[in-house]
């Protein structure tokens, strides 16, 4: 695990960040350091003391061929109770930390045993309907959305950012192949033990800039979005989908932010 480009040890500052704040272990899989520097590592919270940054150098998938396994290993080594698994192409604005603390304070008054939180979720199905109704507060090249009220219970969360209480015992499945569907899997783990997931009002900006520093205003300006139609991408995603489908067959139908299991 490295702090930049695979050359420096991870930042493990453990000090408290002050009254009313939460010390966070940020866990990030990095396969493009330029993209990470233009987005997540440019976030204001990166400069604040008291948080742990676990940046796992996975350029070319040389360290891990499963993000669930990467997250599992990092979570076991993390020091703080609040674990935030964040994509390298997510920017956390100035107010993100204070907004998150306020949302957690509110959430823990009603559900102190919450399981997973994130920026974007899918509302629970009603009467078995498989409609994808997204809730949360986020911006990306395809939308700019804030829904009310938040926090709101959801059946699954987008993987751009996921928060988990380490003491909950929830862990990403190290046997899940590839780099997809782990958000759906951990939400179903929570469901299986009677815990809930929530979208919270802590705004994030997904895919703010490309690796060269150019702002991404439209989906077609993002190389990663364009690659989603490549055969290799689709084949890899299919293996993750099939694994989750077999593992959680008893709960079908269920819905992630990008896929429906019927």
Describe, in plain words, how this protein is organized in 3D:
The chain has helices at 33-38, 67-77, 96-110, 182-192, 223-226, 231-247, and strands at 11-12, 24-30, 52-57, 82-86, 90-91, 116-118, 120-122, 134-140, 143-146, 152-154, 156-157, 161-165, 197-199, 204-206, 254-255, 260-261. It has one domain (11-261): Alpha-Beta Complex (Spore Coat Polysaccharide Biosynthesis Protein SpsA, Chain A). The longest helix is centred in the last third of the chain and has 17 residues, at 231-247. Residues 4-19 have low confidence and may be disordered. The chain is an alpha+beta fold and 262 residues long. Strand 8 and strand 9 (143-146) form a beta hairpin. It is built from six helices and 16 strands. The relative contact order is 0.17. Helix content is 24%, strand content 23%. It has an eight-stranded mixed beta sheet, covered by helices on one side. Strands 5, 7, 8, 9, 11 and 14 form a six-stranded mixed beta sheet that branches.
Brief summary:
With 262 residues, the protein is α+β, with helices and mostly antiparallel strands. It has helices spanning 33-38, 67-77, 96-110, 182-192, 223-226, 231-247; strands at 11-12, 24-30, 52-57, 82-86, 90-91, 116-118, 120-122, 134-140, 143-146, 152-154, 156-157, 161-165, 197-199, 204-206, 254-255, 260-261.
Largest sheet: 8 strands, mixed
Q: What is the count of distinct domains?
A: 1
Class inferred from helices and paired strands: alpha+beta
Shape category? globular
Would you identify the CATH H-level superfamily? Spore Coat Polysaccharide Biosynthesis Protein SpsA, Chain A
Number of helices: 6
Q: Which CATH architecture?
A: Alpha-Beta Complex
The proportion of residues in beta strands is 15-25%
Count of DSSP strands:
16
């Amino acid at each position: 695990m490295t702090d930049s480009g695979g050359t420096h040890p991870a930042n493990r500052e453990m000090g408290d960040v002050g009254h009313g704040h939460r010390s966070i272990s940020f866990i990030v899989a990095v396969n493009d350091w330029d993209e990470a520097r233009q987005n997540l590592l440019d976030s204001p919270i990166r400069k604040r003391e008291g948080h742990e940054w676990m940046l796992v150098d996975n350029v070319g998938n040389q360290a891990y061929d499963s993000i669930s396994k990467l997250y599992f290993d990092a979570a076991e080594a993390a020091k703080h109770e609040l674990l935030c698994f964040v994509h390298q192409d997510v920017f956390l604005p100035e107010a993100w930390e204070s907004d998150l603390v306020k949302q957690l304070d509110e959430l823990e008054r009603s559900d102190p045993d919450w399981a997973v939180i994130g920026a974007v979720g899918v509302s629970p199905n009603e009467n078995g309907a498989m409609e994808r109704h997204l809730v949360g507060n986020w911006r990306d090249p395809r939308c700019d959305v804030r829904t009310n009220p938040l926090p709101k219970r959801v059946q699954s969360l987008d993987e751009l950012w996921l928060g988990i209480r380490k003491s909950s015992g929830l862990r990403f499945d190290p046997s899940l192949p590839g780099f997809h569907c782990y958000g759906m899997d951990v939400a179903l783990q929570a469901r299986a033990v009677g815990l809930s997931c929530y979208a919270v009002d802590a705004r994030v900006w997904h895919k703010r800039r490309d690796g060269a520093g150019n702002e991404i205003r439209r989906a077609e300006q993002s190389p990663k979005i364009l690659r989603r139609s490549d055969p290799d991408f689709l084949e890899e995603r299919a293996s993750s989908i099939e694994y989750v489908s077999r593992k959680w067959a008893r709960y079908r139908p269920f819905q992630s932010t990008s896929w429906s299991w019927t």
